[in-house]
Amino acid sequence: MKTRTTAMLVFLIAAAVSPAAYSTTNSELVSPAVLEKLLPSAPEGWTRLGARLNQVNISDECSYTSASATYTNGELRVKLMLADTGSHAEGLTTLATSVVTLPDGHVGKIPPATTITRIKIDGSPAVEMWDAEKLQGEITVVVGGRFVASVETSTADSLEPLKAILAGVDLKALGALK
């Protein structure tokens, strides 16, 4: 119950920031197998481990589908997830809280060493989060107010490996799914 309450609170904040951007009803979700086809092969020097396909029910009214894979290069591990929220605000808030709540161009710091930056990637709203002390990072993109592409790591020395994996995702093809 606490997670749902938190998600709804964040949704209300997001609605205040951009009330027309998100829906409270699901569109028909794309299957995880369709999302899996958009997971890129491993960049040179990397290995892609097997994909995981999921459908998660957040509440009676909201669910999302996802496909994810982990990419490795030595000790470095990067997880990529592609998800379809059906444009449901609760799903978007769950998977991309910072993207739906922070204004364009926001740059903030969370002590002691985390930086959060709201940017655009290929025209879509995104957030880069980097903790230079813990060497943890995440990049999350919301495509078409519906799809989420997210990469994360806890073993890198910068966001560059995440950017390299995310660059392999065809965000236009993701946004064109129905």
CATH C-level category: Alpha Beta
Q: Can you give the mean pLDDT? A: 88
- Domain count: the total is 1
The arrangement of helices and strands along the chain is HHEEEEHHEEEEEHH
CATH topology: Protein Transport Mog1p, Chain A
Shape: globular
Distance between the termini: 31 Å
Structure description:
This protein has 178 residues and is an alpha+beta fold. It has a single domain, classed as Protein Transport Mog1p, Chain A (3-Layer(aba) Sandwich). It has six helices and nine strands, in the order ααββββααβββββαα. Strands 1, 2, 3, 4, 5, 6, 7, 8 and 9 form a nine-stranded antiparallel β-sheet that branches. α1 crosses α3.
Outline:
26% of the residues lie in helices and 35% in strands.
What are the SSEs and their pairings?
Elements: H1 2-17, H2 32-36, E1 47-48, E2 52-57, E3 63-73, E4 76-84, H3 89-95, H4 97-101, E5 107-110, E6 114-121, E7 124-131, E8 136-143, E9 147-153, H5 160-167, H6 171-176
Helix pairs in contact: 1-3
Please describe the structure with a list of short key phrases separated by commas or semicolons:
single chain, 178 residues, alpha+beta, Protein Transport Mog1p, Chain A, nine-stranded antiparallel beta sheet, 6 helices, 9 strands, 35% strand, disordered N terminus
